[in-house]
Amino acid sequence: MKTNENERVTSILNDLIRTNLDRIKGYQKAADEIKDTTDFEVKSLFSKMAEDSRSYKSSLADAVVRLGGTPAKDTTAAGDVYRAWMDVKSTFSTDDVLAALQLCEFGEDRALESYKDALSENFEWPVGVRTLVESQRSSIKQSHDKIKNYRDQYAHTH
Questions:
Q1: Alpha helices in the chain (DSSP H)
Q2: Which InterPro entries match (predicted)?
Q3: Which of 1-5, 48-52, 104-108: highest mean pLDDT?
């Protein structure tokens, strides 16, 4: 693969690393802010989502290193997703878990958009890298749907 193609792939992968750093910060903040023990299931879900993103970030970083790049260590440049996640903090001042679930769903929408953008790039991906990105996107889609289901259930029971 040509050097400029490697740089293009590492740039795309670094964007996905930043997306996962956003997810980690957002879900960790959401989990930390839930104090009510009756919402333990939602808190556990948020913690699992953060852990999943740590794993995704690690796999993406390994791929970047294999391609000769340096993995990103910052959140998204624009910070839009991160700011949306950080709104979770104010959400919990009113103990509104439903609003937190809505914000997390919004964050998942942004994450899915990042993965969709990455996968729409038209070039020959290094062996195994596109499969890695597709697998993570699929997993994030499942997370999105799980958050949406919790949100719907929470809206009907609270």
A1: 3-33, 40-66, 80-91, 97-120, 129-157
A2: CHP02284, DUF2383, Ferritin-like, Ferritin-like_SF, UCP029477
A3: 48-52
Q: 19 or 26: which carries more pLDDT confidence? A: 19
Helix 3-33 to helix 80-91 angle (10° resolution) is: 10
Over residues 75-86, mean pLDDT: 60
Whether residue 144 contacts residue 109, with contact meaning beta carbons closer than 8 Å, is answered with: yes
Domain that holds residue 80: 3-157
Alpha carbons 148 and 142: distance in angstroms, whole number? 10
Encode pLDDT of 116-125 as tens digits: 999 999 888 9
Q: For residue 54, what is the domain's CATH number? A: 1.20.1260.10
The type of residue at 72 is A
One DSSP character per residue, 113-142 reads HHHHHHHH--S-PPTTHHHHHHHHHHHHHH
Q: How far apart are CA 155 and CA 99, in angstroms?
A: 10
